[in-house]
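Hello Y.,

Per our agreement to keep a running log of every chain we model this quarter, I'm adding this entry. I've kept the format consistent with earlier entries: sequence first, then predicted structure.
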Amino acid sequence: MNLRFETAGFFSNSTIFESLAISPYRKSKIDSPSHQLVMTIASSTDSNGSNSLSTDSMKLLQTADNNTPRIPTRPDRNSSHGQESSVPVPSEVGQEEMMEAVRTLLLGVGEDPEREGLLKTPKRVAEAMRFLTSGYTQSLEELLNGAIFDEGHNEMVLVRDISVFSMCEHHMLPFMGRVHVAYIPNQKVVGLSKLARISEMYSRRLQVQERLTRQIAEAVQTILEPKGVAVVMEASHMCMTMRGVQKPGAWTVTSAMLGVFQDEQKTREEFLNLIRHQPAFF
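Predicted structure for the entry above:
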């Protein structure tokens, strides 16, 4: 289940997190079996009624004993009628083509690509875009590298304040903030750094914050099959700060709750309380 909050500084963190914990919206979803199923599974259905799964999740899920996917996830990119967009892989568009596109943009804004300060700009921009969207070339399998351990642990594991930087897919302007990721193990745990790496992999793509939050939660659910996963993201969007409504200081909070975090208010409140306070060891 996803919630999105936008604020221009009128509410404190505690007000927002209390809203997440006791929101009537959440209660209505939990009380409705059909909504609970849809939000827990979060599948995308096309016009023929079939489910659309992300490539990363399919790779992992097909390694199960029964070779059938268990946890459908949303497409990695924007979709049309439930079908993942058909785009060329990065290697099919060469460096020169990207550089030429940047030169065209420079001409379009009235600049001279041949002046000294801009001579290497097309190359720099092309390389920067490769780096900022490098998450498209990564997969969960490669990222995890077998760092899943059977520890018999069944209490909450939380990694908070993970810094993330991403690119808004609507304007290709950056948004940046923090992600808090928690799960309640079902005996298995993952290396702590992998939660940060999962967040980084999905953030280094063209994104919207709502989808990014959900993808992180579903990735953790896919690799560990825990009792529950909770993700909260707080971010500032340059498309709201530098252009358009031009509101510096506005920030957006999104959440994704799966399993016991969705079903049990006390578990959800424990998570929200843990991310509410400021760490005291730095």
